[in-house]
Amino acid sequence: MKLPLSHIQPTDLPITCVTIDVEEYFQASAANAAIPRDRWLDWPSRVERCVVTALDILERTGARATFFFLAHTAKENPKLAPRCLAAGHEIASHGAMHDPLTGLDPAVFRKDIHASRKLLEDQVGQKVLGYRAPSWSLTHRTQWAVDAVRETGFAYDASIVPTADALAWPHYIQREPDDPPLLEVPPLVHRKSTPHYAAGGRTFGPPDPGATDKAIAQALDEGRPVVLCFDIWEFDTDLPRLPLSMKQRSAMNKGVEKTADRLETVINRGGLWRPIRHHLDMLQRKAAQTGVLTLQPAATA
User: Is the dihedral of CA 173, 27, 18, 135 positive or negative?
Assistant: First the structure.
């Protein structure tokens, strides 16, 4: 379903958000095949030092962010989520074990997100409102997950990379036309490129170093939110050498030495950088202007 753009209007107050997925470097998507789950504890944890680096940047710049915690990481490091909350940041869910939705069935997925939300809420003592699927894996192929995210009690999802113009704005998603809608908060994209490229963080950074700046300027001009996305291990300038192919290692390591400076530079250029939950009312109003996308199952041959 194509969403209309004619009723979308810019607002005077821009929405600018930093989002950070909190997982260990050995839990990254690129490491899935090389490091099975039963070997995770063979690798040294480095997530705490990365969180400290990110918190220091955010404190220096006066920004507040949304941290999407993997429940496994939060369980192994029980002081991290409360520490982020105490510093004024939002705690949201990145699932339990970093399993892409494509490898889960609906029943297993429901248990996954319910367990992750409960663990995080028990740690921080407040409701967890946001969810982001591992590996951006909520798509038409996994549209069955929308019901579970909504019914678990999440107020918004932030899992879908826009591939069409209207999806670059906040919008609502549903499986069937009569289903209650779920707020979708998309990452920053440059809308006029073909195809659209996501430009919201180091992982999404295009080859042109000025392209992210252009994408931010475009989004602000059009009244779209600027949602930057990082993995916490991208703040580690000394990542351990994983048993990956040269291509996989390059994808993980390229540019990590610039991540911290890049984030600090962008924040210092201006804007009220606040967590997604801080902007929730405005995001809902923008989504109401955009409309509702009914996710249809992917076509099969």
Answer: negative
- Residue 12 has a pLDDT of 54
CA 263 to chain centre: 15
Model-level pTM greater than 0.90? Answer: yes
Give the DSSP H/E element, type plus range, for residue 259. helix 259-268
Query: How crowded is the C-beta side of 13, counted as CA atoms within 13 Å?
Result: 11
Give me the numbers of helices (H) and strands (E) for the chain, helices first please: 9, 11
Picking from 23, 20, 105, the residue whose alpha carbon sits closest to that of residue 63 is 20
Straight-line distance from the first to the last Cα atom of the chain, in angstroms, rounded to the nearest whole number: 21
The domain limits of the chain are 16-294
Rounded CA separation 245/27 (Å) = 16
β-partners of residue 294 are 174
Assess if CATH 3.20.20.370 describes domain 16-294: yes
What's the distance, CA 117 to chain centroid?
16
The 3-state DSSP class for residue 154 equals coil
Rounded CA-CA distance 162/29 in Å is: 20
Q: At what angle do helices 47-61 and 259-268 cross, to 10 degrees?
A: 20
| Residues whose CB falls within 8 Å of the CB of residue 241, separated by 6 or more in sequence, listed in order | 249
Q: Are 160 and 169 in contact (CB under 8 A)?
A: no
Residue 180 has pLDDT above 80, yes or no: yes
Q: Please determine, for residue 204, whether its predicted confidence score (pLDDT) is greater than 60.
A: no
